[in-house]
Design goal:
155 residues, alpha+beta, 3 domains, 4 helices
Protein backbone atom coordinates (compact mmCIF):
# COMPACT_ATOMS: atom_id res chain seq x y z
CA UNK A 1 0.00 0.00 0.00
CA UNK A 2 2.80 2.44 0.88
CA UNK A 3 5.90 2.70 -1.27
CA UNK A 4 8.94 2.18 0.93
CA UNK A 5 11.88 -0.14 1.47
CA UNK A 6 11.09 -3.76 2.34
CA UNK A 7 12.86 -3.37 5.69
CA UNK A 8 10.19 -0.82 6.68
CA UNK A 9 7.34 -3.22 5.85
CA UNK A 10 8.28 -6.18 8.05
CA UNK A 11 7.76 -6.42 11.80
CA UNK A 12 9.05 -9.82 12.99
CA UNK A 13 12.01 -12.07 12.17
CA UNK A 14 11.67 -15.84 12.46
CA UNK A 15 14.31 -17.00 14.95
CA UNK A 16 15.41 -20.06 12.96
CA UNK A 17 15.07 -19.09 9.29
CA UNK A 18 16.02 -15.44 9.98
CA UNK A 19 13.41 -14.36 7.39
CA UNK A 20 11.43 -11.21 8.05
CA UNK A 21 7.61 -11.35 8.04
CA UNK A 22 4.78 -8.82 8.22
CA UNK A 23 2.56 -10.13 11.04
CA UNK A 24 1.61 -6.91 12.89
CA UNK A 25 -1.01 -4.57 11.49
CA UNK A 26 -2.81 -1.32 12.19
CA UNK A 27 -6.55 -1.76 11.82
CA UNK A 28 -8.85 0.98 10.52
CA UNK A 29 -12.27 1.29 8.94
CA UNK A 30 -12.47 1.28 5.15
CA UNK A 31 -13.96 4.77 5.15
CA UNK A 32 -10.94 6.09 7.09
CA UNK A 33 -8.27 4.50 4.86
CA UNK A 34 -7.69 7.76 3.02
CA UNK A 35 -6.76 9.44 6.33
CA UNK A 36 -3.69 7.22 6.80
CA UNK A 37 -0.68 8.72 5.05
CA UNK A 38 1.96 6.11 5.86
CA UNK A 39 2.61 3.12 8.09
CA UNK A 40 6.07 1.75 8.71
CA UNK A 41 8.05 -0.44 11.07
CA UNK A 42 10.37 1.38 13.45
CA UNK A 43 13.45 -0.85 13.31
CA UNK A 44 15.45 0.85 16.05
CA UNK A 45 12.64 1.31 18.62
CA UNK A 46 13.22 -0.59 21.86
CA UNK A 47 9.87 -2.17 22.75
CA UNK A 48 11.15 -5.07 24.90
CA UNK A 49 9.76 -7.59 22.40
CA UNK A 50 10.93 -9.43 19.30
CA UNK A 51 8.42 -7.48 17.17
CA UNK A 52 9.16 -4.12 15.58
CA UNK A 53 6.98 -1.18 16.59
CA UNK A 54 4.60 0.15 13.93
CA UNK A 55 4.09 3.85 13.40
CA UNK A 56 1.27 5.29 11.37
CA UNK A 57 0.87 8.90 10.23
CA UNK A 58 -2.81 9.76 10.32
CA UNK A 59 -4.60 12.96 9.36
CA UNK A 60 -7.87 13.10 11.29
CA UNK A 61 -10.61 14.98 9.53
CA UNK A 62 -13.78 16.20 11.21
CA UNK A 63 -16.80 15.62 9.00
CA UNK A 64 -18.65 18.72 7.73
CA UNK A 65 -21.95 17.94 9.47
CA UNK A 66 -20.62 19.42 12.72
CA UNK A 67 -20.34 23.08 13.60
CA UNK A 68 -17.24 25.08 12.76
CA UNK A 69 -16.76 26.39 16.32
CA UNK A 70 -16.55 22.87 17.76
CA UNK A 71 -13.96 21.82 15.22
CA UNK A 72 -11.86 24.89 15.99
CA UNK A 73 -11.98 24.07 19.73
CA UNK A 74 -10.91 20.51 18.93
CA UNK A 75 -7.99 21.79 16.87
CA UNK A 76 -6.88 24.13 19.67
CA UNK A 77 -7.04 21.26 22.19
CA UNK A 78 -4.98 19.07 19.86
CA UNK A 79 -2.41 21.84 19.34
CA UNK A 80 -2.05 22.28 23.13
CA UNK A 81 -1.74 18.48 23.62
CA UNK A 82 -4.83 18.71 25.85
CA UNK A 83 -5.96 15.09 25.58
CA UNK A 84 -8.80 15.41 28.06
CA UNK A 85 -10.20 18.49 26.32
CA UNK A 86 -9.79 16.87 22.91
CA UNK A 87 -11.76 13.74 23.84
CA UNK A 88 -14.46 15.66 25.69
CA UNK A 89 -14.83 17.86 22.59
CA UNK A 90 -15.08 14.76 20.40
CA UNK A 91 -17.84 13.42 22.63
CA UNK A 92 -19.68 16.75 22.36
CA UNK A 93 -19.49 16.74 18.57
CA UNK A 94 -20.16 13.05 17.93
CA UNK A 95 -22.38 12.29 20.92
CA UNK A 96 -22.01 9.38 23.33
CA UNK A 97 -20.65 6.09 22.10
CA UNK A 98 -23.43 3.83 20.88
CA UNK A 99 -23.26 0.28 22.10
CA UNK A 100 -24.94 -2.38 20.03
CA UNK A 101 -25.43 -6.08 20.57
CA UNK A 102 -22.36 -8.30 20.39
CA UNK A 103 -22.63 -11.15 17.89
CA UNK A 104 -20.34 -14.13 18.22
CA UNK A 105 -20.20 -17.48 16.44
CA UNK A 106 -20.67 -20.70 18.38
CA UNK A 107 -17.88 -23.28 18.63
CA UNK A 108 -19.02 -25.12 15.51
CA UNK A 109 -19.57 -21.83 13.63
CA UNK A 110 -23.14 -22.68 12.69
CA UNK A 111 -24.98 -20.48 15.20
CA UNK A 112 -24.66 -16.77 15.93
CA UNK A 113 -24.82 -15.94 19.63
CA UNK A 114 -26.31 -12.61 20.67
CA UNK A 115 -27.51 -13.30 24.25
CA UNK A 116 -24.98 -11.69 26.60
CA UNK A 117 -24.74 -14.72 28.93
CA UNK A 118 -24.07 -17.07 26.02
CA UNK A 119 -21.50 -14.65 24.55
CA UNK A 120 -19.63 -14.46 27.86
CA UNK A 121 -19.75 -18.26 28.20
CA UNK A 122 -18.40 -18.64 24.63
CA UNK A 123 -15.51 -16.21 25.34
CA UNK A 124 -14.75 -18.11 28.55
CA UNK A 125 -14.71 -21.39 26.60
CA UNK A 126 -12.43 -19.86 23.97
CA UNK A 127 -9.86 -18.62 26.48
CA UNK A 128 -9.99 -21.84 28.49
CA UNK A 129 -9.06 -23.71 25.32
CA UNK A 130 -6.45 -21.15 24.32
CA UNK A 131 -4.65 -20.65 27.62
CA UNK A 132 -5.03 -23.95 29.46
CA UNK A 133 -3.02 -26.14 27.14
CA UNK A 134 -0.72 -28.62 28.87
CA UNK A 135 2.91 -27.89 28.10
CA UNK A 136 5.28 -30.33 26.45
CA UNK A 137 8.02 -30.18 29.06
CA UNK A 138 10.70 -32.85 28.82
CA UNK A 139 12.06 -33.23 32.32
CA UNK A 140 15.13 -35.02 30.97
CA UNK A 141 16.04 -31.89 29.03
CA UNK A 142 15.60 -29.75 32.14
CA UNK A 143 17.88 -32.10 34.09
CA UNK A 144 20.59 -31.69 31.41
CA UNK A 145 20.77 -27.91 31.80
CA UNK A 146 24.04 -27.08 33.56
CA UNK A 147 23.49 -25.50 36.96
CA UNK A 148 25.52 -22.55 38.17
CA UNK A 149 26.79 -22.05 41.67
CA UNK A 150 24.56 -19.83 43.78
CA UNK A 151 26.42 -16.81 45.09
CA UNK A 152 25.26 -16.02 48.59
CA UNK A 153 27.44 -12.91 48.84
CA UNK A 154 24.61 -10.76 47.50
CA UNK A 155 22.06 -11.97 50.10
Amino acid sequence: MFKQKDERKTTWMHPHSRHWHMIDFIITRCRDKMDIHSTRAMRRANCWTDHQMLRSNVAFRIRQKHNRQGTMELQRAADRNDTKGFYSGLEELWGPKKKGPVHLKSTDGMETLSDSKRVVARWSEHFQKLLNVPGDIHHEALDNIPQRITKTILD
